[in-house]
Amino acid sequence: MPIMIENINAQTITPANGRNPRQLYEHQVDAVKNLDAMNRKESFRTLLVLPTGGGKTLTAAYWLLKNAVDKGKKILWLAHRHLLLEQAAEAFARNAYTDDMVNHTVFNYRIISGMHDKPIYIKKTDNIIIASKDSIVRSLNHLDEWLSGEEIYLVIDEAHHAVAKSYKKIIRYAADHTKSMKLLGLTATPFRTSDDEQGALKQVFTDDIVYKTDLDTLIKKGILATPVFDEYQTEIQFTEHLGIRALKNIENLDIIPEDIAEDIAENKERNSIIVNKYFENYEKYGSTIVFALNINHAIALNALFNEKGKKYGIKSEFIISSVRDAITGITISNEDNEEKIERYRNGEIQVLINVNILTEGTDLPKTHTVFLTRPTVSTTLMTQMVGRALRGLNAGGTKEAYVVSFVDDWNDKIAWVNPETLTEAEYTEKETDKEKREHNVRLISIEKMEEFARMADASVDTSALDSISPIERIPLGMYVFSTFESNHQILVYNSTQTAYQSLIQDLPNLMEHYGIEDETIPEGTLEDMTEHCFSSYFDENMVPSCNRNDIAHLLKFYAQKAVVPLFVTIDEMDRKKLDVSEIAKKIYDEDMRRSEKNDYIQKLWEDDESLIHIYYSNPYFFKKMIDLELDKLDGDLKIAVTEPQSEVEMRNLEQFPLQKIIETYPKIGLKLKENAYAAARNKDGYYVCNCCKEVFPTRIYLQVDHIIPMAKGGLTVPENLQILCRTCNMRKDDK
């Protein structure tokens, strides 16, 4: 007799008798009504937009149990994160009651992902498939029997990702293999995308938004508690060794470098501040969840809380993922965590410290306060952390909730999320023009830290940057986009604007040329594509130049979503106001004394209407930039001549190779190069080799060549330049 083992990823649910004790809130009832109305229409491809904490998963599950499962229709629920799959399964299991499900006595669900069940085990009798999009898109054929002849609801969680090719492939497949398909997307706000990406999203969800509300509205209705924000400045600095790579990891991935994280975790002064602030206000703060940075931080805080808590009869515990406690040597399991959570619920524990466990999915309505002892740049994570305390009176929680932040000194280098901003309405809709400008410039300023660091370090050669005017060092804007993995920003300057525009225009042909049909580019192919793109569109002598990593991120984004990324601009007038050469010229022309100069610079820095303090981030760098320009005006930046002088032969520029011209006069050289490529395009926009006449969709395998070789007196002028494919160019060289 075979041994049978429980498969918790495939379960049969028997609805409980009676009425669901979890009643929907007013906004969820309104959402259900709108879904009912949409369901009566012929077309059903729509978005449900609720903020984190607004119960979008519960709302969707509640409605689908009654309108899909109970009516014999199937559900395919997709997400790209494992946690979201488990939350969806729990929502269906916990909300099945006979009052709403009068026809079905039982139903089956199955979770499919790399961590759960496999697509091969899908059965025709499964009513609900809750799956990761990666697992499904690789095994669509396993859906054939399950989909055949059925009426299904396809649900996409975090639906702003639905423009990705994998999601669109699944949608098409489901529509082609079913009797009928209805599409429901779930997403929180805010999210900002390009017009192309918004357009692509509307092409997927053709019936637009069925219902939408925001965080601020739910607070006003008492569904969420009114937040009271306490902020404590620790005055402890953690930026001494913070380099550009670390800045990138923090800004893009919300990853604090391990050495800095440990410095924070082990800082006794900072930990004492956190614990002391709680006990100074313990009657007000009450049941408190503390979000720690890492395991060591949680253990250290827990020891301090319990030590001081003896005097007040207050107990603390910490919960973390299944790991071995470095101090006790005891392995902490999920069961241990659940036991501690239950003790917190019934009041035996007043302080519960955790590391990313309680960000979502756990119901702790009596939580009165959250302590944010770790900073984050993620709006989603901040919303989830704050949301632990925001359960309002109408939701079994409290009227007010305290959100306590501990702010360290980062020299304004990082745009940490301020929890107070979460109570504001969605910025994409209600942000003022001034706030939009500040937001855009703030994004860009983070990317400028590397340049500022170079400019401030006298030991680093800055001659390349000094060769261009300060206004040309200020970006025209930046491309902003998100992949499944992370967020990215690409700065665009006068020097690289045309190159990026050409590259983005050629991306469709480039993907076709390399045969990229999936949304993942093989690593070797990505490296090859990146190098070819750099050599074809950019040049090392561009100042500032392009980063190859930026090209790689752009290629990965386009492979996933096949849309143009959002371009955030700096207004031309704003760029001129940021030009330190103009500020230096005013100081120089008016012959300001040192005190007058300092007062003037300070006034500029403190001007709330100015973008200077946002863009330059730090007054030291701002003053340094001005001083460098003043030195130029004073004539102090002179290079000492220590070598014997020599006089070289002068030759016309056109007598030099194109690459030499690009190196010496980038604008002239790059214009010659671009014009040569432009002349090689046919009426369809494709490139034609001037020798074999073969047509190419991109310039990847093409090169600029002299018709009359320079060795035979040919000049680098437009009429003597042609575009050849690499094969023809090599054959010509062989001759």
Q: Quick summary of this structure?
A:
This protein has 735 residues and is an alpha/beta fold.
Task: Describe the overall structure.
- This protein has 735 residues and is of the alpha/beta class.
- The chain folds into 4 domains: 10-213, 3-Layer(aba) Sandwich (Rossmann fold); 220-428, P-loop containing nucleotide triphosphate hydrolases (Rossmann fold), CATH 3.40.50; 433-634, no CATH class; 653-734, DNA Binding (I), subunit A, CATH 1.10.30.
- It has 30 helices and 23 strands.
- An 8-stranded mixed β-sheet has the order 1-4-5-3-6-7-2-8, sandwiched between helices. A 6-stranded parallel β-sheet has the order 9-16-15-10-14-11, sandwiched between helices. A 3-stranded antiparallel β-sheet has the order 18-17-19, with helices on both faces.
- Helix 15 (379-387) links the parallel strand 15 (369-372) and strand 16 (400-409).
- The longest helix has 17 residues, at 497-513.
- The chain is globular and about 95 Å long.
- Mean pLDDT is 81; it is low at 322-331, 424-430, 449-461 and 637-642.
Please give the structural blueprint.
Layout: E1 10-13, H1 26-39, E2 45-49, H2 56-67, E3 74-79, H3 82-94, E4 107-112, E5 128-132, H4 133-137, H5 144-147, E6 151-157, H6 165-176, E7 180-187, H7 195-204, E8 209-212, H8 215-220, E9 226-237, H9 244-253, H10 258-265, H11 268-280, H12 282-285, E10 288-291, H13 295-309, E11 316-319, E12 323-324, E13 331-332, H14 334-345, E14 351-354, E15 369-372, H15 379-387, E16 400-409, H16 427-430, H17 433-447, H18 449-456, H19 463-466, E17 477-482, E18 487-492, H20 497-513, H21 523-537, H22 548-561, E19 566-569, H23 572-577, H24 580-589, H25 594-606, H26 612-616, H27 619-634, H28 658-664, H29 666-679, E20 687-688, E21 695-696, E22 702-706, E23 721-725, H30 726-734
Parallel strand pairs: 2-7, 2-8, 3-5, 3-6, 4-5, 6-7, 9-16, 10-14, 10-15, 11-14, 15-16
Antiparallel strand pairs: 1-4, 12-13, 17-18, 17-19, 20-21, 22-23
Helix pairs in contact: 1-2, 2-3, 11-13, 21-22, 24-27, 28-29
